[in-house]
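Methods, example record. To illustrate the input and output format used throughout this study, we show the complete record for Iron-enterobactin transporter ATP-binding protein. The sequence lines were provided to the predictor; the line carrying structure tokens was produced by it.
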Amino acid sequence: MSAERTTEIESGAQGIPRLAAEGVSVGYGGRAVIEDLDVTIPPGVITTIIGPNGCGKSTLLRTLTRLLKPAKGAVVLDGEDIAGLRTRDVAKKLGLLPQAPVAPEGLTVADLVAKGRHPHQSWLRQWSSDDAGVVERALAMTGVSELADRPVDSLSGGQRQRVWISMTLAQGTDLLLLDEPTTYLDLAHAIDVLDLVDDLHESGRTVVMVLHDLNLATRYSDNLIVMRAGSILAQGHPRDVITAELLDEAFGLRAMVIDDPVGDRPLIVPIGRTHVQLDQVPQRNAKVRLG
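The corresponding predicted structure is encoded as:
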């Protein structure tokens, strides 16, 4: 990462949050998943939510997009309680890519991406050349223009994810929320999708995503939210958050944390029972930043 971009991130993280949860509690069937949770999403950066299975990562993301209604507390989008906004207005402000989405059989790439323009349609405003231009630009930005006439279900996993991201871009929002966008992808395709996410961030978008791969999360994120048992354990830049102690506390994982040789980020090296003892390897000196 360049010094210029680091400065931009550090100053942008202090700006007015695009999205925030204030004292939210959410659950399913009477069972609480997250309780009294406060979190802010800084503008202009990539925020990634990590944590063990069942800790509430996807629940938090779905709550931030109003797919789940909190039993207590509020989600604030651009200074307004999201519960009081019309669904169409929410869709104009943020785009959501759910986990493992499925397109109707035979639906073409162009037709799927065009669905991203639905929030902008009404009885008085039908499909226009402006909408077609937005779709064309979304296809081009994600590198899938040549796939426009192909059925979505005929594409590879990586191509499909690019198409779904293209649909969220067609909504015309600069706030993107992605729930495990690399699910079921091999490493090469996962890197390809995350490179695209980074390109979108560089073009001025705020991104929030859930990832399972910790090293991909540290490499592609400017802001990490570490969850455990429905609570925020730590939040901040990967350099400040990721330590061996945090990994043990959050995941029950023994690991070395060293400097990533290809970037100014921490690199996590898991330690199994048959591997070297932790006291025999150097540890990266960092502190956990809470809040």
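Annotations derived from this record:
Residues 1-14, 286-291 have pLDDT under 50 and may be disordered.
The domain at 19-274 is CATH 3.40.50.300 (Rossmann fold).
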